[in-house]
Here is the input.
Amino acid sequence: MIRQNIRHVPATMCATLNQSGKMSIFGVEEFETMFREEYRRCLSTALQIVGDAEAGRDIVSDSFAAVWKNRDNIDAEKMRGYLYACVRNKALTHMKHIRMSDSLDSGAHIAVADDGDADLILRESRIEAVERELDTLPERTRYVLEQCYYRRRSYRDVADELGISTSGVKKHIVKAMAHLRSALT
Here is the structure.
């Protein structure tokens, strides 16, 4: 299935020096193996973030295409991590675009709200303020906070995914919460 999309690449392995000067050996066979082994996991990750099957498949396809395009610049042993980072980042970017379009749509509804909706308007404005502040956090810290609080994933799961310790996850959470507290009070 993958070979149809990348016919222009010979079926032999590609051995090149990547940007760090290390030998990168990652050919069509290795890519197809990674695709077969990781597609479902990547799709699951994308679906957890975006919640839409079609968008999730698009994100995963785009991520595999990005890996293939940049394979000469990535160490072969870091290829899977790069793939998961692509999926996560593309999914978060997708959600950011959806949030922005939703907030534009909800802005029209707020403009015509009556006085009985004051609590709702206040709540929505607080949510928007939190989302704006989340966007100012470093990407990794924001991702950890979103996974642990919005997706209700355990610290261990997030730590394993990112290749850090659970105390590293806790530090990201503390950093994010301190930033939100200071910015929103």
Summary: The radius of gyration is 20 Å.
